[in-house]
Amino acid sequence: MRSLAFSISLPIPPVTRLKQPIEGLLLDTCNVLYDATGWRRWLLQVLRRFGLHSHYRSLFHVWEKDYLRPVFRGQCDFCHALRTFLQALGLSPGQIEEVAAACQTRRIRWEADTRLLPGVKSTLRRLSSAGIPLAIVSNSEYPGHVLRERLERMGLQDMLTAVVSSRDLGRIKPDPICYQTALKALNVPADLAAFVGDDPDELAGARRLGLQTIAFNPTYEPDSDITLTRFADLLELVDLPISQNRAG
Question: Is 72 in a helix, a strand, or coil?
Answer without folding.
Answer: helix
